[in-house]
What we know:
two-stranded antiparallel sheet; 6 helices; globular
Amino acid sequence: xxxxxxxxxxxxxxxxxxxxxxxxxxxxxxxxxxxxxxxxxxxxxxxxxxxxxxxxxxxxxxxxxxxxxxxxxxxxxxxxxxxxxxxxxxxxxxxxxxxxxxxxxxxxxxxxxxxxxxxxxxxxxxxxxxxxxxxxxxxxxxxxxxxxxxxxxxxxxxxxxxxxxxxxxxxxxxxxxxxxxxxxxxxxxxxx
Length: 192
């Protein structure tokens, strides 16, 4: 089980932290950190995501599979990756995300939180875990912050660059930034 820390939550938005639930050192996205429901439960707690259903129900039969959650993650990543590269997202992938969003809204209710109207998955929604993630992604897409969206220069983690100069290159300086600097130094100063 992965132990979630603040170093895993560098996206600047919960939806980006969800997309960053991969162990990634070279742009591969092959190793998920959400291998089981315990990993997912740990991430939800660390990220401060509101969930209604008790997690004990997830360990038995549940309509939402981790495969569906992984699919949502990778579909959303594909779209945001295209945006960070200055490309138009693939129409088929956009269609998949649109289907996810339509399904989530069919099962959502409008609520007021801190004086703002928000869509939230309902307690009786059988797929509330998936729909809650979809609504987070929709919130990011429509929130007006995508102009600050960046992808790490070393891995595939996404983040909002909210710094003054908006020149952030790494998901985390301690992780990818230091590794990239070390690699650059070693390439300029090879040992014999």
